[in-house]
Amino acid sequence: MVARTVSAVTEELPARRLLLVHAHPDDEVIGTGATMAHYVSAGAHVTLVTCTLGEEGEIHVPELAALGAAHADQLGGYRLVEWERACAALGVTDHRMLGGVGRYRDSGMMGLPTNEHPRAFWGADLDEAAAHLVEIIREIRPQVMITYDENGFYGHPDHIQAHRVAMRAAELAGDDGPEKIYWTAMPLSVLQDGMEAFRESDSNPFAEVEKVEDLPFGTPDDEIAARVDGTDHYAKKTAAMRAHATQIPDNSWLYGIAGDFGGEFMGVEYYTLAKGSRGPGSGPFGWESDLFSGLDVAPR
């Protein structure tokens, strides 16, 4: 059998191709779910690469507590199914585990003994892990890639490692790598609005925060590069969140956002630009509305 060339593979894919690199199942939904659904609906090819099965996650379904790492240690397999269902809700058909299912294990929060597990993603050889991603990059040839910033958005070791692996893979891929790389972000102005909106709520996630600058994340508005409006798809994002039932309980404040503020908070997602040139934008800070803005590629 003659192997198919990379060009033959990409010629069969849509002209616009987006790659996302996330750490655990459910991460793809919370920060980028509306973006993924938006681009799937617009006809782009969306590829999701998740780096671990999330074996160390906190279980919010009491009857499933025995699946946890301290008991049967079967949570990863359960979360794999949740991840597949979430992708289906978003319309994402190309979803993969880095290096194959179970290659890398959830490292747990920073400083815990789980960081030292032999398969912990935090301790993975960077170039070896990046090589798995390079294979996907050269197969798909995405023009745009999304991952986290250097701090993994909020400091989780697997998020930090996902950032490192994604950036190293883009470097190793050379000319085959993405033309633009975005990092997930949240403008300080949006966080401030959220704090005000929840101030009188019984499920206020910001209850212990005096001012927005005290949060472990948040980006000045003038450093944001793109604002993707996926408000037409926030219901899909909510459905994908519900697919991750072990991680996002029914009483989560995230559903409060979905119910009270709808697409305004759930359907709009923000990014900083780490590689490439910013395309045309609008508003006081010139935020792009399309991650492919400025690239010589059009939907077909």
Automatic annotation (TrEMBL):
It catalyses: 1D-myo-inositol 2-acetamido-2-deoxy-alpha-D-glucopyranoside + H2O = 1D-myo-inositol 2-amino-2-deoxy-alpha-D-glucopyranoside + acetate. It is an enzyme of class 3 (hydrolase). Keywords: Hydrolase, Metal-binding, Zinc. GO terms for molecular function: N-acetylglucosaminylinositol deacetylase activity; zinc ion binding. Zn(2+) binds at H24, D27, H159. InterPro entries: GlcNAc_PI_deacetylase-related, LmbE-like_dom_sf, Mycothiol_biosynthesis_MshB. Transmembrane segments: none annotated. Its EC number is 3.5.1.103. Gene3D superfamilies: LmbE-like. Its cofactor is Zn(2+). Belongs to the MshB deacetylase family. Catalyzes the deacetylation of 1D-myo-inositol 2-acetamido-2-deoxy-alpha-D-glucopyranoside (GlcNAc-Ins) in the mycothiol biosynthesis pathway. PANTHER family: 1D-MYO-INOSITOL 2-ACETAMIDO-2-DEOXY-ALPHA-D-GLUCOPYRANOSIDE DEACETYLASE, N-ACETYLGLUCOSAMINYL-PHOSPHATIDYLINOSITOL DE-N-ACETYLASE-RELATED. This is 1D-myo-inositol 2-acetamido-2-deoxy-alpha-D-glucopyranoside deacetylase. It comes from Actinoplanes utahensis. The gene is mshB.
